[in-house]
Design a protein that fits this description.
The protein has 9 helices and 6 strands. It has about 250 residues and is α/β, with parallel strands linked by helices. The protein has a 6-stranded parallel β-sheet with strand order 3-2-1-4-5-6, sandwiched between helices. Helix 3 runs parallel beside helix 4 and helix 6 runs antiparallel to helix 8 (about 210-225). The radius of gyration is 18 Å and the shape is globular. The structure holds NADPH dihydro-nicotinamide-adenine-dinucleotide phosphate. NADPH dihydro-nicotinamide-adenine-dinucleotide phosphate binds near residues 57, 143, 189 and 191. Belongs to the short-chain dehydrogenases/reductases (SDR) family.
Length: about 250
Amino acid sequence: APSSSSRRVALVTGASSGIGERTALRLQEAGFTVYAVARRVERMKGLADAGIHVVAMDVTDDESMTSGVARIIEEQGRIDVLVNNAGYGSYGAVEDVPIDEARRQFEVNVFGLARLTQLVTPHMRALADEPLARRCRIVNISSIGGKFYEPLGAWYHATKFAVEGFSDSLRIELAPFGIDVVIIEPGPIRTEWSAISRESLTETSRGGAYEGQAEKVRKVMERADRPGMSSRPDAVAKKIVSAVLANTPRAR
Ligand code: NDP
C-alpha cells in the first residue's frame, strides 16, 4: 500500500486543450504527479516536455479508459484526484440534430465521466485512511449551462444537467470513504469550445424554421468569447486546484 508520504497522483481528461491543459500544468505546479489524457497526444507535447505523463485516451472507448487507469496504478500505485474535464458543445435545433450525434455527446460528456469515475473510485477508497488534507477528490467540469439554458442547446444542457445530478448524488455516496466530489460550473472561457459549438450550429443555420434563432445563438456565443466577456482557461485551472487543495471537513 502506498505510504502517506507518497506523491499524490492526479488524472486530468481533455488535457490536449483549454481548461484541461492548464489544469494539468497547475496541478503539477502544486506538487502532484500528473497524468494528462486526451485523444490528440501530439497536442500534449508541451505537457510532456514539462514532465507530465501524457497518455492517449478516448473517453468513449472502454478499453482505452481501462488500460489507462491500469497503467497509472501500475506505475504509481494510487490515484488521488480525477478531473473529468473532457467535453464539448454540440448545438442545433432538436429537429436537426441526428440522434447519433446527441448520443455521442452523452458518451463524452456524461458516460466518459461516469465510466472513469467507476474505474477510479476503488483505488480512491483504498486511500480512505489518508489525513484530511490529502483526501481524494473527483472534480467534474459541468458548466453554467448545467444550471441555465439557451435555445438550440437542448442536448448540451441535457449532458451538463446530467453531470450535476450525477455528481450531487455521488458526493453523498462517496462521503463515507473520505472522497469529495466537486462540481465546477464555468461561464464563457476562451478555448476551442466556442468555435466547435458555433460550427455545430451550421446545419440549423442553413435556412429553415430555426435559422433566425441559430444566428442569434451564434452571435451570443461570439460575443461571450471576446476578452472582457470571457476568462482565460488558466483562471478555471486555478479554481480547480484550490478546490482540490481546500481542507474541507469531512461531510457527514
Ligand atoms: P476545448 O475544446 O479547448 O477542450 C476540450 C478537451 O476535451 C480537449 O482536450 C479534447 O481532447 C477533449 N475531448 C473531447 N472529446 C473527447 C473524447 N472523446 N475523449 C477524450 N477527450 C475528449 O474546450 P474547454 O477546455 O473549454 O472544455 C473543457 C470542459 O469545459 C468541457 O467539458 C466543456 O464543456 C466545459 N466548459 C467550457 C466552457 C467554455 O466556455 N470554454 C464553459 C463551461 C464549461 P481530444 O480532442 O484531443 O480528445
